[in-house]
Predict the structure.
Amino acid sequence: MIIKNKAVVSDDWTVFRLSENETPESVTVPAGKIIVPLKVWQAQRANLQSRAELGVWLASNERPEELKGEVEKFNVIAVDFPKFADGRGYSIAYNLRSRLGYVGELRAIGDVLRDQLFYMQRVGFDAFAPRPDKNIHDALKGLTDFSETYQISVDQKLPLFRRVQRDGITTVGSVHE
Amino acid sequence: MYKYDVYDHQIVDERVAQYRDQVRRRLSDELTEDEFRPLRLQNGLYMQIHAYMLRIAMPYGLVSSAQMRMLAHIARKYDRGYGHFTTRQNLQFNWLKLEDTPDILADLATVEMHGIQTSGNCIRNITSDEYAGVAADEIIDPRPYAEILRQWSTFHPEFAYLPRKFKIAINGATEDRAAIAVHDIGLSVLKNEQGEIGFRVLVGGGTARTPIIGSEICDFLPWQHVLTYIESIMRVYNQFGRRDNMYKSRIKILVKAVGIEEFRRQVEADWADIKNGPGTLTVEELNRVAAYFTAPAYETLPANDPGVALYKTENKAFANWVQRNVKPHKIPGYAAVVLSLKKTGVAPGDASAEQMDVVADLADRFSFGELRVTHKQNLVLADVKQSDLVSLWKESAEHGMASPNIGLLTDIICCPGADFCTLAFARSIPLAKMIAERFDNLDFLHDIGEIELNMSGCVNACGHNHVGHIGVIGVDKKDGGEWYQVSVGGAQGNDAAIGKIIGPSFNFQQMPEVIDRLLQVYMRERLEEELFIDTVRRIGMTPFKEHVYATPINAEDAVDKNAYGFIDKPDNYTVQRKSRF
């Protein structure tokens, strides 16, 4: 089960992780709906790109620009959060959406917890695989913590001050230049 | 000052609800402490030695009388009847229960206050000049920009889990009173030759383990671009700042590692596609926010009130207070008044609930209902009629807030230290008290003149020790005792400098004598009218070092042992330290 488009849905993708003795070049990628590590994609691009369905995931220390020009090849791109407090994934998502033109499913994987979901959604994630020991229905509530935001991000192209009429005061004297 | 509109209220109220649920889940163990810690920190809640500490934001140091009364109420109801004003223009309560904190934040929200992002690895409370709006040397009032930056940084989704904390300071005057050079980002508001407003942007300054003055990344950034440009700085830092070692994770380490030219190149590259985009600040929004900071309804008054001059001749104590605690104002007949929270015997920056109520009343009666918190841990009434000075002096003196020591040796900047903080290696508040007692002689203090003595209990340098004319810092020694390193020559402001360590560390009891010896060198060497810092700059550190270490310092002779309680905590006193944060 994952959260996708603000609902809990079943999911049949498998996140493929290399074990210690495996290398990106030699590892055998199983058949089916597999989300492969970036390095495996890069090492086995020739074989993998013929697959009907394929996903790729980025580690928090990997660069999204590595997928420049290729993002449309994937049914899903995932970003791994090794620890929820590692915030690099937020900028990876921003860059994938805003600069690399990725419009498909963008999934947060790894240490994904309820209290970070609102921010993740704002930077462009639309799918979330909460940590398996957590209640996914509880995690879903994290998406609705706030109903208004100040600043622009992937989800909101206009800052609050361009979007709504905000209250001001009538002033006496001169206003700041 | 700024007033929340419906959106500001909604966002803060939703934050309180979110936090209340997080506390509920923590208490029921749905959240582990590791999962909860970053969440509570981003609401300003620390777990300290004795209890929880809550840090409440006073954006750029401004606080209204209604807000101050709420703080007094919280101090009485949930704490032990006092609070501690910090060097970052915040207020801390030190004796709270976790279960109470959602209610406290709900109470604060009713007066447009919160603890949002006062801790954690995110963009912290934006600090500014305590004399903003009234300073005679002001180029542009920085507060509208500070408020716009506050809103922009509040819950920024991409920058809530940075490698480390991130502090922005903004100054709008000729003199830098916001210590911009020792912040992650320091902004000075400028007017260029065409009369356009912009910012000089410094990046990568800081204190702590790696004290360093910020580098100039942009000499003139037009004001419209301030949000997007900072966004790009943040994005480069978020991606490339180190996360493997918390002592090397501030932006200053990144800037130093790649060099300012390369860092600038990366920022400009990131900025290319958002510059002039919808994140660009508009003149309408700037004007909307700036309207909250227009001048109050000043009366037309003579430049100098004759009553003040007369009373000064009659009353030496008042004259001393005027000399030290009353600052010039750009409007004729007005003054800015510093209420000292540095009364000898009281922890620097501490205020009781009663004092908070008193200053709220004083603000209502004498200064349009507003107060400012200074980075030197005092309070300012920024718009006082000179004709009210005598009344204000008498009333503030009755409540222990008229010590005429602003800018003098006993106006010590001091972190909470090992009495409260789990990070500290040594106590700082008892040391500040001991030093204040030792030099508690007004004539002597005035003779020494302006000097900044800044003290921190550990390398995190919350007491700004590196930029103190004299800096004192608690250091980690294997014996678990309390040891302090001393530096001289640090400075804040336009001539910001990092002080130099004079030599091996001293124990708690030796410290007053160390300070005394530093002052002896100054008095011996100073030229007429020369301040301590200028003497240090002229003659260098060596004469100070030589004199301090010339003969052993016998702690027995150095201090009055009875007054400070250090006998209860002797040299082999082991500081209680628990888990970080």
Observations:
- The first strand of chain A starts at residue 2 and ends at 4.
- Strands of chain A lie at 2-4, 7-9, 14-15, 34-37, 55-58, 76-81, 105-110, 127-128.
- Chain A touches chain B through 49 residues (CB under 8 Å).
